[in-house]
Amino acid sequence: MNTLPGLVAARLRWLSEEQEQKDRDLREEIHSAELKLNNLKDRRADLLGLARRLGEEALTLQDRRGPLYDEVEQYHQQYRDLGRLQAELRAQRERARARVEELLNEMQRGREKRRDLDQRPRPERLTQEIAQLERRQQTSVMTLKEENALITRIRELRAQLSQAEKTEAVWKMEDQSQQGTRDELARTRQLADELNAKVETIRIDRQKVLDQVKGRLVEIGHLVGEIRARGKARSETLEKVDALGLEIRELERSVMGKIHESRELNHEARRTLDDHNRTVRGAGHREEEIRQRTADDNLRTLFQKGKIEL
Prior knowledge:
mainly alpha
């Protein structure tokens, strides 16, 4: 059988009504505060669990970010390698184009020189004219003066023919040179076109690699944003945990103060009850002593005087 309520009731009967009400109020406040404490601790535990989950998620995202950085570095290295190859091919293409310009200038100079040669009499025409004059000399009747003039003309034409044949030889050599220039020009143009096509192919490949880099960087940016968001949420959650911890400590101090105050009231009731009990016991002892002394006195009187009158 639990006698605590009876004892408490007995103890509280030695308190004033105001003290009894205060003790009941304290107990209600303590009970309400303990419920609030449990609620706050549950909330703090939930927040701590949330903070742990946020931290774990941030670490998972961080693990995903590492391989992406490795891919970006690989793509970046590929981009740089293609850039160096592209620069080399561009240099070769520019040299080929410069050579094309040189060959075109050479051909232009050759054409100008050919035009100069073409303005001079051709050997075929001179030979034909000499043959006509010789036939005329052989078949026509001419005066001495006319014949001498014809012979002079034939001599001039033969001199021109000799010079024209030399010029023809030079022209043939120039034509051969021009043909070589044209052949080299065709090859150089083809080389320049091939190099240009390769440069364009590498440009497209580099752009694809660059797009890969940009895609990975965008993905990394999203991950970083999510990591930062979770880090911020975790920090805010831990701040709430700290605030709850402070509120819990303050409430615990308040509860302990109320418990101490309630104990003081109970101790005061116990002291009052103990004092009363001691008083009662002391009064009983005194009455017993009085009765004993009275009996002793009566007994002595009996022995001294004999019969005792009551």
